[in-house]
UniProtKB/TrEMBL annotation:
Keyword presence, Iron-sulfur: no
InterPro entries named among the record's database cross-references: DNA/RNA_pol_sf, Rev_trsase/Diguanyl_cyclase, RT_RNaseH, Viral_Replic_Matur_Polypro
Keywords: Aspartyl protease, Endonuclease, Hydrolase, Nuclease, Nucleotidyltransferase, Protease, RNA-directed DNA polymerase, Transferase
Transmembrane segments: none
Taxonomic superkingdom: Eukaryota
Organism listed in the record: Phytophthora megakarya
Any single biological process term in GO: proteolysis
Protein name: Reverse transcriptase RNase H-like domain-containing protein
Domain Reverse transcriptase RNase H-like as annotated: residue spans: 172-268
Record lineage: Eukaryota, Sar, Stramenopiles, Oomycota, Peronosporomycetes
């Protein structure tokens, strides 16, 4: 059996950037402004576009002369999840800080992550606010008493990590759906794709694939926003942060449970 090693380090440079989009990727140094004409590594959707391009180029060879190791999407490492699920309650602020940092790497596949982690984050922020420096060494010396609320939040967060969802690879011809939900304290965003949309069927009965989860909590002055302002906020966040998934020639479909938003985004309908 032949196991060739292929280095695609410069593969991005083989893909040209459309002239209309080159200015968007420009960057400025102390000497001049550089405008790339090839796909640069590091922009938010470069990896997704590069992967889709390679699959398209090798489509005729797929499963005959070329084997795709996995096309089922992205899942979290089961061993890593097992380690996190077996963690004891943290005894100092450094341990809590490390737990939250580890869990944060998985938040894109965890629904309602922010609200579950918020009590723990508030506890950490309160302790570090009185510290001289926000370093791990300082945090190690701060004893932690989670209390009943903190222990419940810690257990709930571990449960969510154990039930993290699989994420699919975005497909260029799929129908993109943005679904948002808002409560008094936070919001949730998920983006799904439907490869074969069936007219007449509601979105919950379509054959769906999850692409990403985003969640957050309302803090500071945001807590005083009106209901419609809170409902609009995650939609704006999604269009800003997830534009690499939502900006398609055929657009995307928006689903929420606030009827009045129709008059905000589509006043003529």
């Amino acid at each position: 059996m032949l196991n060739p090693q292929v280095d695609l380090e410069l593969g991005y440079w083989e893909i040209a950037v459309d002239e209309a989009c080159q200015e968007l990727l420009s960057y400025m140094t102390h000497r001049k402004i550089y405008t790339p004409r090839r796909i640069p590594q590091g922009c938010c959707d470069a990896a997704l576009f590069f992967q889709a391009t390679i699959e398209k180029c090798l489509q005729e060879l797929m499963y005959q002369h070329l084997l795709l190791i996995t096309g089922n999407g992205v899942i979290q490492n089961p061993e890593r999840i097992k380690v996190l699920s077996e963690l004891p309650y943290p005894t100092n602020e450094a341990e809590l800080q490390q737990c939250l940092c580890e869990a944060n790497w998985m938040r894109e596949s965890v629904i309602d992550f922010a609200r579950a982690a918020q009590p723990l984050q508030d506890r950490l922020d309160l302790a570090l606010a009185n510290a001289s420096r926000m370093t791990k060494r300082v945090a190690t010396g701060i004893e932690l008493g989670l209390g009943e609320v903190g222990r419940t939040a810690f257990d709930q967060l571990k449960d969510k990590l154990e039930n993290s969802a699989s994420l699919a690879f975005p497909q260029p011809d799929s129908i993109m759906c943005l679904i948002t939900h808002v409560s008094e304290v936070g919001f949730g965003i998920i983006v799904i794709q439907v490869r074969h949309w069936q007219d007449g069927k509601p979105v919950e009965k379509q054959q769906r694939e999850l692409l990403v989860c985003v969640s957050g909590t309302f803090t500071g002055s945001k807590r005083n926003w009106s209901v419609i302002e809170k409902e609009v906020y995650p939609i704006i966040c999604a269009c800003d942060q997830l534009s690499h998934l939502l900006l398609r020639p055929q657009g995307f479909r928006l689903f929420c449970d606030h009827h009045n938003l129709i008059y905000v985004f589509a006043p003529r309908k």
